[in-house]
Amino acid sequence: MGKGFSFIHAADLHLDSPFRGISQEVSETGEYRHIVERLRDCTFIALKRLVDLCLQERVDFLLLAGDVYDLSNRSLRAQLRFREETRRLAEMGIQVFIVTGNHDSSDGWRADLEFPETVHVFSDREVESRPVIRQGQEVARVYGISYPRAAVTENLALLFPRPPREPFSIAMLHANVGSIEGYDNYAPCRLDDLIGSGYDYWALGHIHSHTVLHTEFTRVIYPGCHQGRSVREMGAKGCVLVRVAEDRSLECEFMPTDNVRWHFIDLPIAGLGTDTALLNALEDRLWGLKQNNPRLAGVVRVQLNGRGPLHKRLMNNSYRTDLLQQLRSRYSTPVEDFVWIESLNLNVQPEIDKESVRQSQTLLGDFLRLSRQAALDPDLMRQLKAGMQALHQNHPLGRYLDEPSGEEMERLLAEAEDLGLDLLGGEDG
Ligand SMILES: [Mn+2]
Questions:
Q1: How would you label 239-266 residue by residue, b for 16+ Cβ within 10 Å and e otherwise?
Q2: What does the alpha-carbon distance between residue 41 and residue 36 come to, in Å, rounded to a whole number?
Q3: Cα–Cα distance between 55 and 1 in angstroms, integer?
């Protein structure tokens, strides 16, 4: 293959981070111990998969672009497991290049473990570079800088020197490019800072979803985290396998490494008239999810939504708890690829033909007409707001609450209307 080579780019392993998705009372029952243990170990299993993939693809090196550990005071367990995996890579002569990020900045505690010589952690004081040698030739050079502390607010991208045209150049950085929302704005920089830098490949970390920011001449890529750990990290998670040909052309392929995958099921209850119909609909969705994700465990947040005849029953706590327990026990096996129902949430409303009731000369009709009038009549709206003020003033949290906006009042009114209908018996069953 001449001067061609390949590497894997991963980031945000967050080893040993707590998995959010299983409540204390469930983990204490013992019934679901295999699930609790699996969720606790999932970042390590994903690491093993990442290393297996390096070996299988016989890559030349592995890049880890920050947040290898979840905490700067990294656990001994995480450090030992990580060292074990880097040894497997060392045995095959696969180099590992690491920059640290905001979660594992170098000011935290670290055990005095010796890592293989093939593992290099970049300095946190200046941009360093290291060569990748194949058959006596430097085929690539990797540049990087680590975080000395968590909250790095300067633009580290500007510290990278302009690389020579040869060999292929890679820059490693944990950073928020273009102030992506939902993430701390650490080592903030602009995409233009990276594109104009002369590097062939920017191996980024920090953003947990796989994102390709640029592909022409300069590749700018976030691989995303290698294992989802909360409902914010849904879908496939993994790393990027990069093959560089002799003529410098690049092939990048996303490769999943996760072993527990987060999902969201959004099920409308419209038309579901019986308990059996509801159970069947839920089972269909769960079964489909299992079919689409073979050999993977899953964690699912379920949300029932819309109007339907089962609304009132679903509002009953013990009905909902029984439903959740039934689904959990059915899908908690097989042990290897269970589906754990993280929670069952409701956004449902009673089924009712509101407009015809609104016109009827009944108590419900009066109620609905009054509710409509409140939305249109400024005097009535003022009275409602005045009524709510008592809540603001007397409640301990009241002083932290703003007065609701017009839009919020409309939403509250709509909710109150549905709640009122339900309480007044607007539905049978
Ligand atoms: Mn991270």
A1: bbbbbbeeeeeeebeebbbbbbbbbebe
A2: 9
A3: 18
| Interval between CA 44 and ligand 1 midpoint (Å) | 16
User: CATH 3.60.21.10: which residues of the chain?
Assistant: 5-256
CA of 12 to the centre of ligand 1 (A): 4
* Span 70-109, pLDDT tens digits: 987 788 999 999 999 999 999 999 999 999 999 999 888 8
Cα 104 to averaged position of ligand 1 atoms, centre (Å): 9
Q: Are 280 and 273 in contact, with CB atoms under 8 Å apart?
A: no
Ligand 1 mean position to 70 CA, how many Å? 8
Q: Which of 353, 285, 315 is nearest to 429 (CA)?
A: 315
* 250 bridge partner residues: 244
Does this model's pTM top 0.90? My answer is no
Q: What is the CATH number of domain 5-256?
A: 3.60.21.10
Report the Cα–Cα distance between both ends of the chain, in Å, rounded: 72
Interval 252-272 mean pLDDT: 96
- 66 alpha carbon to ligand 1 midpoint, in Å? 7
